[in-house]
Write a structure and sequence with these properties.
The protein has 5 helices and 5 strands. The protein is an alpha+beta fold.
């Protein structure tokens, strides 16, 4: 299984469809809200959300939706990243509700070699997330510094430091 890509493996126009999707539960959303100290009743209080909002029910906190999509993209985009450089834009297009399943895909917009080091490059991508109905819920663009193959080779390959399995003596 591949985990991330080297600079050479990215092609402008490529689309990576991230799998599997993630069904957002009420407890996922509440835990994220509590961990990040976002106590807005729109996310935590079903009675409030049911009677005091346009949605009539709790809405999943947007940063959790973004985090799910970012995490989904790691095996395809930034699993070998040297650095996440920038989130250029982030838009929450439609609400996500408890029980919705989020699916993501990433488009490679551009890539360029580093101007300061010849063993890495910068990849510009756009990730989109939709729910189970195909409704677009979130879009963001980011730039990631990724290694060239030479960078990994100089450091011991794709998984430096991973021990080699030593089989027990069969005697």
């Amino acid at each position: 299984m591949q985990f991330g890509r080297t600079f050479e493996e990215f092609e402008v126009g490529d689309v990576y469809r991230h799998w599997p999707g993630k069904t957002v539960t009420e407890s996922d959303d509440h835990l994220f809200c509590l961990l990040t100290m976002n106590h807005h009743p729109l996310h935590l209080d079903a009675h409030y959300a049911g009677g005091s909002t346009d949605f009539g029910r709790n809405v999943v906190v947007g940063n959790y939706v973004y985090s799910i999509l970012l995490g989904m993209s790691v095996p395809d985009v930034s699993g070998k990243a040297i650095a996440n450089l920038e989130v250029e834009s982030l838009r929450h297009v439609a609400p996500t509700f408890h029980g919705d399943t989020i699916y993501g895909q990433t488009l490679v917009l551009d890539k360029r070699e580093s101007t300061t080091r010849d063993d890495r490059g910068i990849v510009h991508v756009e990730t989109k997330g939709c729910n189970q109905d195909g409704t677009l819920v979130c879009v963001f663009r980011r730039r990631v510094m990724v290694p060239k193959r030479s960078y990994l080779d100089a450091r011991g390959g794709d998984q430096p430091g991973r021990p080699t399995l030593i089989e027990p003596d069969p005697r």
